Structures are given as C-alpha cells and as structure tokens.
Amino acid sequence: MEKDLERLESVYRPRTKAGEFWDHRSFHPLVEDVFLLERQFQELVLETVRRKQWNPQDLFVCELGCGWGRNLSLFTELGIPCNQIVGVEFLEHFIATAKKLQPALDIRRRDARETGLPGASQDLVLVHTVLSAVLEPRLQADLIQEALRLLKPGGLLVILDLLPGYAMKFAEDAQGKTVPFLKPVAIAPLFQALGGQGRIFYQSSLGLRPRLRGLFFRRLHRLLRAPKARRLMAELASCLPFASTHRFFAWEKR
After folding, report:
1. How many Å apart are CA 182 and CA 132, to the nearest integer?
2. Is the pLDDT at 1 greater than 70, yes or no?
3. Which of 88, 157, 192, 228 could form a disulfide with 251 if both were Cys (CB 3.0 to 4.6 A apart)?
C-alpha cells in the first residue's frame, strides 16, 4: 500500500508550467471540454441536495482527497458556511495552492483513511475521482470505511469516478518511468460490501468521451459558434450509453 502512495506523490508532483499534467491552471471554465464534466457534476450535487431537502446553512461537508479545493468552492456557493466545510489532502503542494486560491477554506494535510475528524459529524462526504487514482483495492476499501465513519445517519457519501471500461491512463513519474495514474474502478461492489448500512439514494452517468469532446468543442467550433449550441450538443451526446465517461453515486447511510 505504501508503494501506491509513493506512486501518487510522484505522478501528482508539482508542475512548473501552466498546462502541464494535472496543473490547477488547466481547470477553469474557459476550457470548455474540461469544464463540461465539472458543470455536470455540480448540477448533480445541487440536485442531490434538493432531493434531500436540506438547508445548506445547516450542513457539514467534507471532501476526501480534495486536491487544491476546486470542489469545495461549490459548497460555499451553495450557502454552506466555510467553517462547516473541510477538505482532506495529503499532497503538500495541492494544499499550498488551495490556501493561495481559497484562504478561507479549511484544508488539512491528512491521510484520507484516518482523517482525525469526529465520527458521525458530516452530512455529506465527497470522494471525487480519488478511487480511480488509487490502484490498491485495500486503500479504496479503507477510504470508503472512513467516509462511512464520518457520516451522520441519513448523510450522503457522494462518489464521482470513471466508468468501468474507460481506458486506463498513464503518466510519467519523477524518474521518467511510465506508470498508471488512473484506473477505472467498479463502484457498485464497494457499496454492496457495505451490506445493509445504507442505500443508493441517487445516481447518474455524465461526461463525454475525448473524441466526442474534441468534435463538439474544437472541430465543430466554427459551425457551432454559439457556446450554448456547443454545450447543448455535448450534453445530448453525453446521454448516450456509449458516450459517457463517469458515474455519479450518492449513497445514503441508514
């Protein structure tokens, strides 16, 4: 398991140029094809909160593996007080970036398997494309167990991750060796392992395969000059069974 953590630290090491692998400057609304998934995810989170009929000001939220905190800002926009939002991350440079971009947020350097947060303290725990970054099944299971420990009864574990069948992704580590950095993981069996401790509250597919993203946001850019037209075509295409890339799960703890 320690070797997997070392791989993560190496693959997700700090970058010096904008646009390099996993650089925070490459993830923003101006990058249309990247932001498509982010916008769909945000809408699904909002829909989940609506279905729970929660009052945002009463919610306590935690993200495990929050990176530089780009998802945490969604919760502040939702109206959740900053002192009720906490992010957990073990890569120091992500935390430094997060504090620079969003100094009001509480982002802590911890192992997501042992956060140190009180049990049954969170209404919503988010795990966003973390399970596919962790290749060791035991690490995945430990992370899910910690999320479950943190949840209040009736709370939601929200997971966004790659669909099974999506191609494994590779990147260079610090030594220049090609290693996997994302491997699709079947989420449903992880929930099944929790037995009768809860139920799937809401789920949906989202995202768009890279070739289709390139089609709508680059090749047809001149034809679909209106941004709304490009987004609408991409959104419709992502509804096709073969076209989506990710699955959104909201699991409710009994």
Report:
1. 5
2. no
3. 157
Q: Quote the CA–CA distance of 66 and 70 in Å, as a whole number.
A: 8
User: What residues does 162 pair with on adjacent strands?
Assistant: 246
Q: What residues does each domain of the chain span?
A: 2-208+246-253
The C-alpha atoms of residue 222 and residue 238 are separated, in whole angstroms, by 21
Whether residue 63 contacts residue 88, with contact meaning beta carbons closer than 8 Å, is answered with yes
- Look up tokens 């646009």; give the residue: 19
| 3-state helix, strand and coil shares in percent for the chain, rounded to the nearest 5 | 40, 25, 35
User: What's the confidence (pLDDT) of residue 241?
Assistant: 80
Asked whether 251 and 187 are in contact (CB, 8 A), the reply is: no
Burial (CB count <10 Å: 0-12, 13-18, 19+), residue 185:
buried
The pLDDT of residue 166 is 86
Beta-bridge partner residues of 160: 128, 248
Is 90 exceeded by the pLDDT of residue 164? Answer: no
Furthest CA-CA distance within the chain: 54
Q: Quote the CA–CA distance of 186 and 132 in Å, as a whole number.
A: 9
Q: What is the DSSP letter of 28?
A: S
* Domain 2-208+246-253 architecture: 3-Layer(aba) Sandwich (3.40)
Q: Structure pTM?
A: 0.93
The residue with greater pLDDT, 198 or 195, is 198
CA atoms within 13 A on the CB side of 61: 27
Q: Summarize pLDDT for 64-81 with one digit per residue, the tens.
A: 999 999 899 999 999 999
- pLDDT tens digits, one per residue of 111-128: 999 999 999 999 999 999
